[in-house]
Design brief:
By secondary structure, this protein is of the alpha+beta class. The protein starts with a strand and ends with a strand. The chain folds into 3 domains: 2-283, alpha-galactosidase from lactobacil brevis (Beta-galactosidase, Chain A, domain 5); 287-499, Alpha-Beta Barrel (TIM Barrel); 592-696, Golgi alpha-mannosidase II (Immunoglobulin-like), CATH 2.60.40. The chain has a 9-stranded antiparallel sheet. The chain has 14 helices and 36 strands. The chain is globular, with a radius of gyration of 27 Å. The structure holds alpha-D-galactopyranose. Alpha-D-galactopyranose (GLA) is lined by residues 300, 330-331, 340, 375, 442, 444, 480, 482-483, 499, 502.
Length: 699
């Protein structure tokens, strides 16, 4: 047995390797002291054989197989001529660098080489992926493929998994790992709302976050008690879901699967910061492409399909008066698209809505000092469209079967070259002919039947995105799928923003944004002030509350300012000013979650250099009149801070401030005082939110 050790800044990984045998992760945890005896480390957790176990207990390790009596889900399932192969992958080589290890296995019966690569990246986030190469003489089909197989250190006894639905993304569920584990698979052709591409494992406050960076279907298995290995560790597997026959490796073929990421942190705030840092440095399009995150006005919840050039110009004018910086024309601008049953695929500006084309609207938007964004849903086609009438075979379908629709639409087969060509030509022409700074790229249908292409369809999506980005590198793109149905590190390496949810209700957003921000930084999370009553929940919320909540993200407005009162418009404009003043902090800083004894009080603070901004919001009527002081986080204990409450203040709550002038001029307090005792903010009524601004004073 040989041992390989990789060290990050705060992390150590130890692998136990047996040439001709297997590879195991013998340690995943806080950085070990130099000179730690790795053989002793492994021996300290090794166990002798127990009853009802193969005579030689199998080590599923980094590439679990069933060959030696391990009864869990294998990382790979290969088929030859339709027949499942009992693989016997043996470790034959490995290479290591200071922060990367590459383990090469070979299966003699098929000639398949399997590479398992672990890399410690920015901020100690670990990327893991599998590669396959067919060195044999026959085609081999891949029916199952994991990106990550992780024997989970036994101290992780609890998990948080995610579920969701349209307008209710990322619902957290915490429970114990054992005894029944977890098995999930998505079938929507995208990560979807089921959230099983995200997972947290807990060992007390220590937390291990795991994610699959892939924009198609995924599977996840957490198996605490697979018979065989008997060392008390659960096996976690995560990978892209495949239809039979989608990947066939001909002799000489190579294949690299999507990658999973994992990160370890002492608590959930630290984990969020770790993922945010990794995305900022290693995943998101290069920062050089980014302007400050402009305030959007999106036409969807303002006008819906009720579009006309004069109406949109009026909307743009009222938007500019609020301080909006980007005007986004959502659905309804193309073909015969006057409702959501028709015309997807006909990506030509509608002469009915825009007799003079889009140019006059875009010109006016630019005159008003804003740039222009456009909604598209390229991967879809409506049966009622010129595109479908001309090319009924371009959609994903199964010959001779029904073509069931969802939202009145079908999905195009993105694996077809002519579909790629058509979509590129249309989108490229739109971007060349118009000054478009941003695309909201939607995907509102699940893939059923997927025609056996649910994996390669995603490559088609990536290919189109890649080609367009190369041709138009300055266009920002948002990934939307009826809200947060296609959010993952794969798409985030290609886009600048995601749409976390169609639900703009600020109370819902106070759950949804913190949930996404466990993995994603605020600058990619679209955060809009919607109308009141909210079109989805029907809830009425005051503008002050809606606007404060929307500041914590990439802010926008998705309501018609003409339908707001003067007071509401003033309040919204004042919050847009605040957002602009603070976005540098919110979009580069460290996010900490605040805890409060009242579960209906949510708080986040972002610290950056010598500034910090907190959002503290109350959703339900407090059981006590004076809610406990809010304790801040992430401050330097010894530093002194000037604390103010940026105005406007919540109209009802402000009457409970004992000394308003103090909160205006600023209180000076140490980081220790702010984090230990906190601030007694008036949190008396439901739907009250405060922003708290901090400035670190020179020593
Ligand atoms: C989807 C999106 C919405 C909006 C509509 C337009 O539902 O999630 O934000 O763009 O489509 O049809």
């Amino acid at each position: 047995m040989e041992f390989v050790r990789l060290d990050g800044e705060r992390l150590t990984l130890v692998f136990a390797l047996e040439a001709g045998g297997g590879a195991d992760c013998a340690y995943l945890g806080a950085r070990l002291p130099k000179g730690e005896d790795l053989a002793m480390l492994a021996a300290a957790t090794a166990r002798a054989r127990h009853e009802s176990q193969p005579d030689v207990p199998p080590v599923p390790g980094l590439l679990p197989e069933n060959k030696a009596g391990w009864s869990g889900t294998p990382a790979l399932e290969l088929r030859r001529g339709g027949v499942r192969i009992e693989t016997d992958c043996r470790l034959n080589r490995w290479t290591t660098g200071p922060q990367a290890a590459h383990f090469m296995f070979h299966d003699r019966s098929t000639g398949i080489d399997v590479g398992v690569r672990w890399v410690i990246g920015a901020g100690d986030v670990v990327t893991v992926g599998l590669t396959l190469a067919n060195t044999g003489k026959e085609p081999i089909a891949v029916n199952r493929l994991a990106a990550l197989a992780l024997p989970v250190p036994a101290r992780f006894t609890e998990l948080t998994r995610y579920s969701g639905r349209w307008a209710g993304e990322m619902q957290e569920h915490r429970r114990t790992v054992a005894p029944d584990g977890l098995a999930r698979e998505s079938v929507t052709g995208k990560p979807g709302f089921s959230g099983a591409n995200w997972l947290l494992l807990h060992a007390g406050s220590e937390v291990l976050g795991v994610h699959l960076g892939w924009s198609g279907d995924h599977w996840l298995a957490l198996e605490p008690d697979a018979q065989g290995s008997g060392d008390g560790r659960a096996m976690l597997l995560m990978g892209p879901a495949l239809d039979a026959g989608e990947i066939v490796l001909e002799p000489g073929d190579n294949f690299a699967g999507p990658k999973a990421v994992l990160a370890l942190a002492p608590n959930r705030s630290a984990l969020a910061q770790t993922f945010h840092g990794f995305l900022r440095k290693a995943v998101l399009p290069a920062r050089a492409e980014w302007t400050p995150r402009k305030v959007h006005l999106n036409s969807w919840e303002a006008l819906g399909f009720d579009l006309s050039e004069p109406g949109l110009v009026a909307l743009a004018e009222s938007a500019a008066a609020l301080g909006i910086e980007r005007f986004v024309l959502d659905d309804g601008w193309f073909g015969g698209r006057r409702d959501d049953r028709t015309s997807l695929g006909d990506w030509f500006v509608s002469p009915d809505v825009f007799p003079n084309g889009l140019a006059p609207l875009i010109d006016r938007v630019q005159e008003l000092g804003m740039d222009f964004g456009l909604w598209v849903e390229p991967e879809m086609v409506s049966p009622d469209s010129d595109l479908y009438r001309a090319h009924p075979d371009w959609c994903l379908h199964v010959e001779g079967r029904d073509r069931p629709t969802m939202r009145g639409q079908l999905a195009l087969d993105m694996t077809r070259a002519e579909v790629q060509e058509y979509l590129f030509e249309r989108l490229d022409a739109l971007l060349r002919d118009h000054a478009i700074a941003y695309l909201k790229w939607d995907h509102n249908r699940d893939l059923f039947p997927a025609g056996g292409k649910r994996f390669i369809q995603t490559f088609g999506f990536y290919a189109l995105l890649h080609r367009l980005r190369a041709a138009h590198p300055h266009v920002e793109i948002e990934s939307c799928a009826s809200g947060g149905g296609r959010i993952d590190f794969g798409v985030l390496s290609r886009v600048h923003r995601v749409w976390p949810s169609d639900n703009n209700d600020a109370i819902e957003r106070l759950r949804i944004i913190p949930a996404w921000s466990q993995f994603l930084p605020l600058e990619v999370l679209g955060s809009h002030v919607g109308p009141s009553p909210n079109p989805i929940t029907g809830r009425r919320l005051a503008m002050d509350f809606r606007a404060k909540v929307a500041v914590f993200g990439h802010m926008g407005v998705e309501a018609d300012p003409a339908r707001m009162t003067d007071t509401e418009r003033e309040c919204l404009a004042a919050h847009i000013v605040l957002y602009k003043a603070w976005r540098g902090v919110l979009h580069s800083g460290n996010l900490h979650r605040l805890t409060h004894p009242d579960a209906n009080i949510t708080g986040m603070i972002v610290t950056h250099a010598d500034r910090a901004l907190a959002l503290v919001a109350q959703t339900a009527f407090s059981p006590v009149f004076d809610a406990a002081p809010v304790r801040l986080a992430g401050l330097e204990p010894e530093a002194r801070y000037r604390v103010t409450l940026p105005e406007p203040w919540p109209p009802r709550a402000k009457h409970y401030l004992a000394a308003p002038e103090l909160w205006r001029d600023g209180l000076t307090l140490s980081g220790t005082a702010l984090m230990t005792q906190g601030l007694a903010l008036p949190l008396t009524h439901p739907e009250t939110a405060w922003l708290v601004a901090l400035e670190r004073l020179p020593q």
